[in-house]
Amino acid sequence: MGFERRSLPEQISGLWQLAFDLRWTWQPAVREVFRRLDYPLWRLTSHNPVRMLHLMTDQRLMQAARDPAIVALYDAAISGLSRAVSAKGSWWPATYPGLPNRPIAYFSAEFALHQSLPIYAGGLGVLAGDHCKEGSDLGIPLVGIGFMYPQGYFHQSITSEGQQEEQYEHLQWDHAPVEPAVTKEGKPCNLSVVLRDRVVHFTVWCVRLGRVKIYLLDTSVQENAPADRELSARLYGGDRESRLQQEILLGVGGVRVLRALGYQPMVWHLNEGHTAFVALERIRELLDLGESFDAALERVRRSTIFTTHTPVAAGHDAFPVDLVESCLAGCWGAVESHRDEFMGIGCYDNGAGPLFNMTALAIRSTSATNAVSQLHGRVTFDMWAKIWPNVPARECPLKTVTNGVHVPTWIAPDMARLFERHLGIDWEEHHDAVEFWERISTVPDEDLWTVREALRSYLIAFIRERARELWTHKQVTAARVVAAGTLLDPAALTIGFARRFTEYKRPELIFYDPDRLARILTAFRRPVQIVFAGKAHPADHQGKHHLKNIFGRAVDPVFGGRIAFVEDYDLHVAHFLVQGCDVWLNTPRKPYEASGTSGMKASINGALHLSTGDGWWAEGYTGSNGWLIDGGVAGDDPAAVDPADAEALYRLLEEEVVPTFYDRNANRIPVRWLQKVREAIRTTMPRFSARRMVKQYAEWMYAPGFSVEPRH
Ligand SMILES: *Cc1c(COP(=O)(O)O)cnc(C)c1O
Fold this sequence. Notes:
By secondary structure, this protein is α/β, with parallel strands linked by helices.
C-alpha cells in the first residue's frame, strides 16, 4: 500500500493536511481551495482531494503556489482548520467550562462522511456521520469507532431487464482520506480479539473531522486467515455468524482501540445495538481493577447511553445463545466466572424464544436509551415495555432525541449564498435558533425562485450526464438511456423518491393506479416527472422486485419518459436529489420509519415534503410546510391502507401540488409555492438540524455523564 505523499511547494505545503481532514467536505472556503487548485481534476475525481494531490502535475502545483489568490485562500483554510481543531470559543467548552478534557466515545457500525469513503449503506450511517460533523462544529470531544470495510457497500447497476447487479469495488487505499492510526507510544495500532478459538488481528485507520476523529477497525491484515481478512471487508455482507463476529470485534475491539490510543472516555454512546458488546469489555476491565460484577455493570451503565433506530421487533439483531457463548469463548477474561450474569443481560424473548438480543444488552447496560422521533419513542416504549417491568412509564429511562441533519453538509451552496445575502453572513451560526428563521420572509420571491430553478437544473444536468456516460461507455440500449433520465425536462415539476428499496417504504405506492398517474405526469403544459434512486439490500428479494417494477415503469412509453431511475444512490447522488427536486416523496407504512432524514435534507433546501405521517414528519408537518398523505385508514392491512393512501396521494398531487406549482404570476413566478418553500425552510432548519440534535444529546446525556464517573 503506497502512502507516500509527494512533497508540495512550500507556500501550499499543508494541502495534504487539508485533504486528509474531511472537515473540507462542509467548509465552502476549503472546497474552494481544491476547486481552484485544479478544477478538471476536482470534477474527474468526484471531489476527492487526496486523489487530486496524487494526480496533479508538478507544473500545475508550482503554478498554484505562485498564485496569490490561491495562496491566500489556502492560508485562510489552514488557520480555519487549526482553530476548529483547538475548539477555542466553540459551544461545548463555552457552555460547560471546567469539564475535564476527556472524550465521548461514539460507536457505530457505519459512518457516511463522503462518497470517497464507502463505509455506509444508508440512513444510519448518514446520521452517525452528521452527528460527528456537528460534534466537531460544536467543539465536542467525540471519538468515533467503526469499521473500515475495504470493499464497502456495493455499487449498483441495473440490467436492461431491471435486475439490480451488485459490484464490490476494492478501495484504493492511497486515494482514501484515511491514515494509519498511531498508538500513544507512536507505534502502528495493531490489536487483536479472540473469536471462538482463534486470534483475529486488526489494524486501525483514522479519519479526521476537525475537532473529531473516527477510528476504523480493519481485519484485512497479513496475519489473518483469508476468512478473517474478509470479516470487515464488507458492510452487512456475511451470514449471521460473521455478523455476530463483526459485532464482537466492534464492541470489544473498539474499547481496546481507545485504550491503545490513550483515550479515557467519560461517556460512551452506542449508536444502534450492533455496538453493544462494549459492555463486555468494559466490565472485564473493571473486574481486572477489582470491582465486583454488579458494581462494574453499574459503573458501565452510568456512563453509557444508547440510541435505538429500529421500530420493528424482528429488525433487532438477536442470535442463538449458544452461538454467542461459543463466539465469545476467548473474550471473557475475568467475566468468565460471571458468564451467566452477562448472558442474562442480553437474553430476551421477543416472541421467537429466548435469544441473545443486542438491543436488550444495550438497554440493560446503559443508563438511558433514546428513540429518534417522538412517534418512534412511543413505538419503542410499547415494544420494549416489558424490559422495564416495575418501572412506571414516567420514570422509564427512555428519551427521544429526534434526528437532525448536518446543515453545512446538506445545504446547497446557492441556497447558502442566498441566506448570506438576505439573512446575514453569519446565518450559519444561528441556524438552530427558531426566531432567527422568521427573517426568511424577507427573501424576495425572485431570488428564491432563481435559486430553486438553478438547483433543479443542476440535478437534471447531473442525471443526463450520467445517462450520457451509460450510452457512451457502456453502450446500453436506448430504453435504458431513457430510463436513466434523458427525457427529463429542466422546467417541469420534479418529484424525488430516493431511499433503500424495501417493502415498508412502499416505493410502488404512487403506481397504484398507473392510468391516473400517467394523466398527472403527461398533462398538457403542466408536466410532472419523478426521479427514483436507491439500492435494495442484496438479500431483500422483495425490495429488488419493487426496483425491477419501477425500472419497468421508467421504460414504459405510457409515462412519456417522465420517470427516471438513477443508479447507485450514494451521498453524491443524494446531494443533487435533495437539493434539486421540487417535491420529496415519502410513503412509508406507519410506524415503520423510525425517523427518516432525507426529507429533512430536502426541506432545508426548500424541496417540499410530501409524506405519510410517519417518523419525523409526524412532528414536523405544520399544515403549511409541505403535505401530509393521510388516507384515514389505520392498521396493518395493506389491502385497506394502500388504496386509501394512494387515493390521498393522487388527490394531493391533482388538487394541491401540481396546481400550486404551475400557478404563476406575470413574471412566471409561483408565489404560493414559494410561500410553502419559505415555510419548509423556516420550520425545519432549526428543529431538524443536527445542531439541535447534538446539543440535545450533549445537554441530556453527555454533560450529565461527566459528573457521575470519577476519573479512572
Ligand atoms: C439521507 C440518506 C439516507 C436516509 O434516507 P431516509 O430518509 O432515512 O430513507 C439514505 N441514503 C443516503 C445516501 C442518504 O443521503
